[in-house]
User: Fold Putative transcriptional regulator from Desulfitobacterium dichloroeliminans.
Amino acid sequence: MSISFAILGILSWKPSTGYELKKVFQESSFMYWSGNNNQIYKALLQMQNEGLVNPEVIHQDSAPSKKLYRITKEGLDELKKWVLSSPEAPEFKKTFLIQLAWSDVLNNQELNEQLSRYEDTVRVQLLLEQEKSRRSLNSPNRNDRETFLWDMLYQNLISSYQAELDWINQVRQKLFENEV
Assistant:
């Protein structure tokens, strides 16, 4: 999936500057692009050339001019076409799984400490997602259905972190109680 569809989605919610788009990407847990300026502005320029977005130059007295991007009808059509396309299978890229795969080189204490560090990291992420959900950060909330869908996005992330914590406990229990 390209960053362009995420940008079109955000612009379907509200017109935004490149800087505002970058902030949404930085604060989002499921829009996984780094949202660096080059990535965003390159995509915006390409979409502008394709007629999917229109920029509006806003002049400011005490600051440089800025461009506010709006989605066009063609952009909305392209977004809808993409939303209706077949979803990709989820990707699981967890560095910890690679570390765990080769953790037989560790003694039990070292392995338990590594599991604890990972558990702490996951627990912090879980708390962050719960707080984001509570605050509804960057959720459009234009109607009840959309609010429900965004709540479910947050619940998906929260349940993933909770499942990871449950899995860590399983690993610990089977490893150390049964002394595998």
